[in-house]
Every structure is written in C-alpha cells, then in structure tokens.
Design goal:
Elements (H helix, E strand, L loop, with lengths): L1 E6 L3 H11 L17 E8 L2 E4 L6 H9 L11 E2 L4 H6 L6 E4 L9 H12 L4 E3 L3 H5 L1 H5 L5 E2 L10 H8 L5 E7 L2 H12 L3 H11 L7 H4 L2 H14 L9 E3 L7 H9 L2 E12 L2 E12 L11 E8 L4 E7 L4 H15 L1
Helix pairs in contact: 1-2, 1-13, 8-9, 8-12
Bound molecules: NADPH dihydro-nicotinamide-adenine-dinucleotide phosphate (NDP) and ligand LTNE7NMQ.
The site of NADPH dihydro-nicotinamide-adenine-dinucleotide phosphate (NDP) has 27 residues, from helix 1 and strand 2.
Length: 340
C-alpha cells in the first residue's frame, strides 16, 4: 500500500483522483501501469484546508465533490486537520508520498515549497506538478534526501527529460526547440482562427490547461520555468528564471499570424536552448517557423520538442493534450515509478 497526500485538488489534483479511482478499471491484455498498486489517499488539501482519513479518502467521491465546486473540508466523513501539509504531519497522519499540485508562486515558492520542504524533512518523497518549488530550489530538491519526481512539470505527458537524457547519452545538443506551454499554442491557434484574445484565453481556461492567472502562460513564465527545469535536468547547467530571455505572446496579432501563414510560415511560442561560449542561452519568444518544421505542424492542442544534435540527428516528439488529464497521468506515472 502507498499512502498519498495530495495538495491541490484542481485540474491536476482532481483528474489525478479520478485516475487513482479507476486504476484497476482498464480492461484487456494491456492494462495501464500501476494496476493492482494499492494507492490510498490519506490526506488532501485545497484552499479550504486539509482533510485526512487514515483509512483512505474515497478518491472518486472527493473528485466528484471538487468537480461540483465543493470545498475539501466539507466532504462528509473526513477529519479536518488544519490547512497545510505541515498540519497533516503535525497531526500524526502518516503518508508515503506528497503530490504537490497547488498554485505556483515564482517569488517565494509559496505554500507548495513549504509543503515540499515539510514532507522531505519528514523523509517523504514528493511528486511535483507545481513548477515553482523546483525552479526556485533546484539544488535543494534534487540533492540529497527523499526523491523528488517532476515529469509533469516539463510538458505534460511528453517525457521531455527522459527523451533528452537518452539522446544526450551519446550525442551533444546543438540546439533545442520546444513549444511546451500548451495554453500559448492553443490561444495563438484560436486567434488565427478568428477568436478574440479574451475568448481564446477563456476557452483555454475551460479546458483546464491554463493557469489560474493566465499571464503566467501568456507572458512566457510557464514556458521559462519549463526551460529552466529542462536545462538543469539535462544540460549540466544551473539556470535560473532570470537567465531566460523571455517574451510572451500578447504582442502577437491575428494579422501577424495570417501574414506569417501566407508567407509559408507559422508563429509558434518557442523556447530555445542554444550553446554558446559562455554557456547555454535560454530564450522564450514567439518565433516564425517554416511550415515543414515539426513544431509548425502541430495543431492547436499539441506541444512538442525538437532536439538538434551533432551525431544523433534531429529528434522530435509531440503530444496532443486537449485537457489536463495527460498531465495528471504524468503525475500518476511518477507516483507509480516512485512506489515501484
Ligand atoms: N493544468 C495543467 O494542465 C497543468 C498544471 N500544472 C501545474 O500544477 C499546478 C496545479 O495546476 P491546476 O490543477 O491546473 O490548478 P487549479 O487552479 O485548477 O487548482 C489549484 C488547486 O490548488 C488549491 N490551492 C490553492 N491554494 C492552496 C494552498 N495554499 N494549499 C493547497 N492547495 C491550494 C486550489 O484550491 P481550491 O480548489 O479550493 O480553489 C485548487 O484545488 C500548478 O502549479 C500548475 O502550474 C502542471 C502541469 C499541467
Ligand atoms: N499552463 C500550462 C499547463 C502545464 O504546465 C500550459 O498551458 O502548458
């Protein structure tokens, strides 16, 4: 049995609860990984507070309660144990893994970083969906101590870190290009189709992929976080957010998009890492790509990465994620890996 504490019960946490509730449901000869793993949610936290049940909170009931707009503390049959993961630990509720899926705070790391530190101090491994703790405390969270897994932080279900690490085992990257903020890809596509920017953002929020504060996506912060994590995890560098030359997509107009398209190009919200004599140059900015470029061929719901190498050719991979379920599946993949 693996006892979970889940902090953040929104698009990611809610979908994760649903995936946990249906873990054993996949039929046929190719069951989903983790089938038979006894994952028990013993603590859950949202903005209303922390709820606990050592015997296990029903994940389907909690997911349905949250999807209906309920507050965690109002779920029938559970005990309220303060407001934070530290409170849960102080109440003596034991768990084996923390899932941090709360909002990001790029100034301080916010409640997420506090929760992660509390868990690790108690010897408990962590799975992150929230990027801010990792971006702000990379050395601490990837250094000695309980494991921290973070594949959902770097492009939803697209295993970008795994792809890069495997590729760079025998090759050198000469340029990395990625479109890893799904909201920006989606919003630009809808604007090109004729929607107003406000309507496009509202549609992105309705899917669950946009951040609560859309400027986190539209101003390039989310892509910059992903680029920093990717660079630190795979390129042997120690990048910070301030190292990223960042431009968002808010200056891109429908005219720009149509003009590019008419010229055989597409404007893509691009994150790039390029090696220079003084280290890696990290940039997030809208870029015009020729239509035969793998990232220009993506549709509105896709994200992708292209790795140009010296001897291993050019690798590219994309993922289509119309909602937050694939990212929740990436969190589940980390849970299963750590529990295994
Ligand atoms: N959505 C996506 O596709 C992806 C998101 N992420 C990251 O995962 C994290 C969660 O994203 P998402 O689920 O979309 O966000 P949501 O806004 O949908 O959900 C955030 C959740 O955090 C809860 N919350 C707010 N404050 C606190 C707090 N102090 N302590 C604990 N929980 C709190 C909210 O409570 P309440 O329900 O009461 O409002 C809500 O349940 C973010 O950091 C995001 O960047 C990563 C990959 C993909
Ligand atoms: N807001 C993000 C969600 C995943 O990290 C995005 O749009 O890609």
């Amino acid at each position: 049995m693996t006892r979970l504490a889940i902090s953040g019960l929104g698009a990611i946490g809610g979908n994760l609860l649903h995936l946990i509730a249906t873990l054993d449901d996949s039929p046929g000869p190719d069951p989903r990984g983790g089938r038979g793993l006894d994952l028990r949610v013993v603590a859950a936290v949202d903005s209303s507070g922390a709820i606990v049940d050592a015997g296990g909170i029903d994940p389907a009931a909690l997911a349905a309660h949250k999807a209906a707009g309920g507050r965690a503390v109002d779920l029938p049959g559970v005990t309220v144990a303060g407001g934070t993961i530290a409170d849960v630990l102080a109440a003596g509720v034991e768990f084996d893994m923390l899932i941090e899926a709360g909002p990001g705070d790029l100034e301080t790391g916010g409640a997420g970083l506090v929760a992660v530190r509390a868990a690790r101090s108690a010897g408990i491994p962590v799975v992150l969906a929230a990027k801010a703790p990792l971006v702000l405390a990379w050395d601490e969270l990837t250094g000695p101590g309980p494991a921290v897994a973070y594949s959902a932080c770097v492009g939803g279900a697209l295993p970008t870190v795994t792809l890069l690490r495997a590729t760079l085992t025998s090759a050198r990257a000469t340029r990395i290009e990625a479109a890893l903020n799904g909201t920006s890809v989606y919003v630009l596509s809808l604007i090109e189709d004729g929607l107003s920017p406000a309507d496009a953002v509202a549609r992105a929020q309705a899917t669950g992929i946009a951040e609560p504060d859309p400027s986190f996506d539209l101003d390039g912060w989310d892509a910059a976080c992903k680029l920093v994590i990717l660079a630190n995890a795979t390129l042997g560098t120690r990048a910070r957010l301030s190292d990223v030359d960042r431009t968002g997509i808010t200056g891109v107009t429908r005219d720009d998009l149509l003009r590019a398209r008419a010229a055989g190009r597409r404007i893509v919200p691009l994150a790039t890492a390029v090696p220079g004599v003084d280290g890696w140059h990290l940039t997030v900015a809208p870029a015009e790509l020729p239509l035969d470029h793998p990232l220009a061929r993506m549709d509105a719901e896709e994200m992708g990465i292209v790795v140009h190498t010296d001897v291993a050719g050019r690798l590219s991979a994309t993922t289509r994620e119309p909602d937050a379920i694939p990212s929740a599946a990436a969190v589940l993949r980390d849970i299963i890996t750590l529990a295994g």
